[in-house]
Design brief:
The protein is α+β, with helices and mostly antiparallel strands and 278 residues long. The protein is built from eight helices and four strands. Strands 1-2-3-4 form a four-stranded mixed beta sheet.
Length: 278
């Protein structure tokens, strides 16, 4: 529903980077601030501004690195996070830097908010402005720390999961993806178990704020299920060539040379694009 294109989507393009803010972004975060956190309209506007800037800074960090490597990056912000496209043609080491850039800039923004929280002087702007500045800084501290930490976890398709997948496939082209997805499933399952144990009593006690915990819980389960599905597909894909070779008694295909790394496609079962290599 919310993931589909709509005339209400906000789109623009600057410095070769395409941006799109989906309707689901406004719906999810407005409901979270107004209904679950019980914010007033003025607080809600501040909250939405901080969320939007934090998401944009994270995604722009990716995009700047991608643009420096010549990729045409598109950013889509929807629901609880953003999505990127246009990086698929990058080399493996470039993709690793590309995915690492997002958490790095989120940590940097969190660090700047921390520094201002302890060293800043919001009272210099007056008592009314100081109160709103403190609220904004508190939102920036919480959101960017959460965004940075959750994205360094080796869970697919988060940034950490994408980095771990590329590193694993650099070590083993045949089984690297299977190993990365297995770790992703275990980490996502561990996150689900932790949240179920730590927040179970709070969820049972009810309250609107605990709906946010339930949504995070559902997000962790979704990542675990998605990773498990991809893991099963990767195992089948990696096993298919072996069965075919046994049936037709074909010799094993020689390992690709170093120059073929750029044509390797990680999510097609370890096959190579023959047309691209010709």
């Amino acid at each position: 529903m919310f993931g589909e294109s709509s005339f209400l989507d906000l789109r623009w393009r600057i410095f070769g980077i395409s941006f799109c803010i989906k309707l689901s972004f406004w719906v999810v975060w407005l409901l979270l601030g107004f209904y679950i956190l019980g914010m007033s309209w003025r607080q809600l506007l501040l909250w939405m501004g901080v969320v939007l800037v934090s998401d944009l800074v994270h995604e722009i960090g990716h995009a700047i690195v991608g643009r420096s490597f010549g990729a045409r990056i598109s950013i889509v912000i929807a629901g609880f996070g953003g999505g990127l496209s246009g990086f698929e043609g990058l080399k493996r080491w470039q993709r690793i830097l590309f995915f690492a850039a997002g958490p790095i800039v989120s940590f940097a923004l969190w660090g700047a908010a921390e520094a201002y929280h302890y060293r800043g002087h919001p009272d210099a702007w007056g008592p009314d402005a100081a109160d709103w500045i403190r609220r904004a800084v508190q939102h920036v501290r919480f959101l960017n720390l959460f965004i940075a930490v959750i994205n360094i976890l080796p869970i697919f398709p988060l940034d950490g999961g994408m980095i771990f997948s590329d590193v694993s496939q650099a070590v083993s082209r045949r089984y690297g993806l299977v190993f990365a997805l297995l770790v992703s499933v275990l980490c996502a399952g561990g996150l689900v178990a932790y949240m179920a144990t730590f927040y179970w009593q709070a969820i049972r006690q009810g309250g609107r704020a605990n709906i946010f915990i339930i949504l995070l819980f559902a997000f962790a389960i979704m990542n675990a299920v998605q990773g498990l599905s991809l893991l099963i597909g990767a195992i089948r894909a990696s096993a298919a060539p072996t069965k075919q070779q046994e049936a037709h008694d074909e010799p094993t295909k020689p390992a690709a040379c170093e120059d073929d790394i750029d044509t390797y496609r990680p999510f097609d079962g370890g096959r190579y694009d023959e047309q691209q290599k010709r």
